[in-house]
Structure formats: structure tokens, C-alpha cells
């Protein structure tokens, strides 16, 4: 291959093959240079996409042995048919008062609006030795509704943890903290941890087990403070050629309130999620996912005189388009259908949005 390129430096096939050979030999720096040269020689779009995928894989391999700091910024515009996740019924019968009909205030009825949001984050990975690495991250999001600004939201997330890679197994544990705002006021904070074991059977099969704990604290509704535990399992499978990936998982958990007499605000839960992503010969990638969660609350509701049960379905479909390296545009549609035996907690929600993301 080197002799071919010495005679004809513009021989695209030979340069692509020698780039693959360098990558196989572990000479990642030279391989990246050769792949970049191939892209500059005007290859078809589907070949350019394949090269970008290989370059990303090389970068991940290089990152394993060095300290890396990565970041992103993104913006979203969209329309939400139910920004407050509320019922569409204006009147609700309350059994505690003999079935008397109460009219809900504006904040308790389904509201729709357009919105914009801005997000950003940084992540750090520092290898400690051949197996262990230290990780940390910080993310923030602010969502602003066009007209109904009392339901503007914001959040920040932070974590610190460690990762151990041992053969085909990856063990990780992290401390986590989240702060959530509504209308610029602190609404809830959550602090806890996550631990996970991931096993890579081969290049196309992967599974994981995880456990999560969160200490939930509500700034203005202390009776809702709770301990939340979740355990679950996930899997991912790529079909031959890696063009289509299927994934899914299942989980169980409990959210237990701490204050006596308010057990009806806590619940047990179980859920499942499945999804798929397909990458066409040319961009973009098409994805779809479906999720279900069942919640049964721990005691009879004080006002509605029955134990609340919810069944919630979530559907998402969209397209991820990469117009240039480190850029991604994602138009998507999300649908939520929450069914409950208490009318106040039933709602439907549709969100149509477009997100533009820049990796730093």
C-alpha cells in the first residue's frame, strides 16, 4: 500500500486501506491523518459517514489513556400541548366532600405553549491507572415558555465517580446531585448515588445492571420528602453491519415518604422501555422508543378516598442528523398518556421540538 501511494498519492482506495491497517496496528495518530486525507479527496457521503464513525472510535480508544474534558451546548425550540402535565377537565368531583364538584384554577388545567430552552455541560475523565478512572460532570438547562412563564423550569446536575474497566466488564459508581426550579424558585433537590455493572459480550451485545438511590427534598412541600430506590437492567444489540441498534430495559423501585400520615404521596413502581435506532447509508439516523411505567401509591388518597394507581405510556420518534462534525440536529415528537383511577392525575401531552447540539 505504501508503494502504491508512492506512485499515486491520490489513490483513494489504497489510502483508505492503509488507514485501516494503521488503526489495526494501534498507530492511531497516523490512522487519523490518513482517514482525514481520504475525506478531503471527495469520497461519497456514505463513505464519509463511515470514516467519521471510525474516527470517533479511535478518539474513544485514545481517550482511555489520557485526561479528557468534553463539553456541549444545545438549544431547542418547540411546542408543548401540556406544559404543566395537568388534566384537561375543568371540574373534578371530590368524594371527601360527598362528591361535590370543584372548579380547578388555571394552574391545574392543561395549558399549551411554545417554548425555547438552552443547555450546556462539561465532563471530565481522568485515568488513575490501567483499570481505574475518575469521572465528574456538570450540566444545566433552562426552559422558557413564550406566554405561560409561571411554568418555566430549570435544572442543574452534578456528579463525581469512579469507573473500573476489567476485560469485558465495566463497573461504575457515582455520587449525584440535582436541583430543579419552577418559575425561578427552588422546587426540589435530589442527592444520591448510582452504581452499575456493564458487560460487553462482544462488539454487538451489551447488558447492564444498576441500582439508584435519591434523597428527595421539596422546598415548599416538606410532606413530599422521600427516599427513592430503583434497581434495573438494560440491554443493547446491534445487528450485523451496526446500522440498526435495538435497546431496552426494565426496572422496579419505591418512593417512600418520611412524614407519618402522608404515605399516600409515596408509591411503588415498575416499568420497561424498548427502542431502536437505524442509520441509513447517508445521514440521518432514525430512532424510536416506547416506555411504560406503573405506579401504585402506598395508602388511600385523603380527598378521593381510594388508593391511586397510574399507568403511563411514553412514545418518542425522531431523526438525528449530523450536518458537520460535532454538530447534531434532532427534530423529534414525544407523546405521553398518563392514565389514573383519580381524575385529577390523568393527562395527555404532545411535544414537538427541534434541538441543535454542538460538541466542544
What are the key terms here?
360 residues, 4 helices, two-stranded antiparallel ribbon, 14% helix
The proportion of residues forming helix, as a percent range, comes to 10-25%
Pick out the low-confidence regions.
Answer: none
**What letter string, H or E per element, gives the SSE order?**
HHHHEEEEEEEEEEEEEEEE
Q: Overall mean pLDDT score?
A: 92
Cα separation of the termini:
35 Å
Shape: elongated
- Radius of gyration equals 25 Å
Which structural class is indicated by helix and strand composition?
mainly beta
Furnish the topology, listing elements before pairings.
Blueprint: H1 2-7, H2 12-24, H3 28-40, H4 45-63, E1 68-80, E2 91-94, E3 100-103, E4 113-127, E5 132-145, E6 153-166, E7 169-182, E8 185-200, E9 205-218, E10 226-238, E11 244-257, E12 267-279, E13 285-300, E14 307-320, E15 327-340, E16 347-359
Antiparallel strand pairs: 1-4, 1-16, 2-3, 4-5, 5-6, 6-7, 7-8, 8-9, 9-10, 10-11, 11-12, 12-13, 13-14, 14-15, 15-16
Helix pairs in contact: 2-3, 3-4
Write up what this structure looks like:
By secondary structure, the chain is mainly beta. Helices cover 14% and strands 57% of the residues. The protein has helices at 2-7, 12-24, 28-40, 45-63; strands at residues 68-80, 91-94, 100-103, 113-127, 132-145, 153-166, 169-182, 185-200, 205-218, 226-238, 244-257, 267-279, 285-300, 307-320, 327-340, 347-359. The protein has a 14-stranded antiparallel β-barrel with strand order 1-4-5-6-7-8-9-10-11-12-13-14-15-16. The protein has a two-stranded antiparallel sheet with strand order 2-3.
Amino acid at each position: 500500500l505504501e508503494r502504491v501511494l508512492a506512485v499515486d498519492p491520490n489513490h483513494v482506495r489504497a489510502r483508505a486501506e492503509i488507514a485501516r491497517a494503521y488503526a489495526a496496528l494501534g498507530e492511531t495518530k497516523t490512522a487519523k491523518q490518513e482517514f482525514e486525507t481520504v475525506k478531503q479527496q471527495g469520497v461519497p457521503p456514505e463513505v464519509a459517514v463511515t470514516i467519521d464513525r471510525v474516527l470517533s472510535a479511535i478518539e474513544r480508544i485514545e481517550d482511555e489513556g489520557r485526561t479528557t474534558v468534553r463539553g456541549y451546548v444545545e438549544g431547542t425550540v418547540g411546542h408543548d400541548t401540556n406544559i404543566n402535565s395537568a388534566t384537561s377537565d375543568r371540574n373534578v368531583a371530590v368524594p371527601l366532600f360527598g362528591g361535590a364538584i370543584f372548579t380547578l384554577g388555571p394552574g391545574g388545567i392543561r395549558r399549551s405553549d411554545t417554548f425555547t430552552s438552552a443547555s450546556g455541560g462539561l465532563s471530565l475523565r481522568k485515568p488513575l491507572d490501567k483499570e481505574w478512572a475518575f469521572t465528574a460532570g456538570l450540566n444545566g438547562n433552562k426552559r422558557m415558555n413564550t406566554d405561560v412563564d409561571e411554568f418555566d423550569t430549570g435544572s442543574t446536575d452534578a456528579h463525581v465517580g469512579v469507573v473500573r474497566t476489567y476485560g469485558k466488564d465495566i463497573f461504575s459508581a457515582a455520587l449525584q446531585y440535582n436541583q430543579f426550579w419552577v418559575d425561578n424558585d427552588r422546587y426540589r433537590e435530589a442527592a444520591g448515588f448510582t452504581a452499575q455493572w456493564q458487560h460487553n459480550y462482544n462488539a454487538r451485545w451489551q447488558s447492564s445492571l444498576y441500582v439508584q438511590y435519591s434523597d428527595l427534598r421539596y422546598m415548599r412541600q416538606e410532606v413530599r420528602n422521600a427516599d427513592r430506590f430503583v434497581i434495573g437492567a438494560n440491554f443493547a444489540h446491534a445487528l450485523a453491519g451496526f446500522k440498526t441498534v435495538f435497546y431496552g430495559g426494565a426496572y422496579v423501585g419505591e418512593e417512600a415518604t418520611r412524614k407519618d400520615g402522608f404515605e399516600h404521596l409515596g408509591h411503588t413502581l415498575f416499568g420497561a422501555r424498548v427502542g431502536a435506532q437505524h442509520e441509513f447509508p447517508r445521514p440521518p439516523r432514525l430512532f424510536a422508543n416506547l416506555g411504560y411505567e406503573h405506579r401504585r401509591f402506598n395508602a388511600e388518597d385523603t380527598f378521593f378516598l381510594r388508593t391511586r394507581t397510574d399507568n403511563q405510556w411514553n412514545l418518542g420518534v425522531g431523526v438525528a442528523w449530523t450536518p458537520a462534525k460535532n454538530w447534531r440536529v434532532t427534530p423529534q415528537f414525544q407523546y405521553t398518556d398518563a392514565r389514573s383511577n383519580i381524575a385529577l392525575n390523568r393527562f395527555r401531552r404532545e411535544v414537538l421540538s427541534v434541538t441543535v447540539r454542538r460538541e466542544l
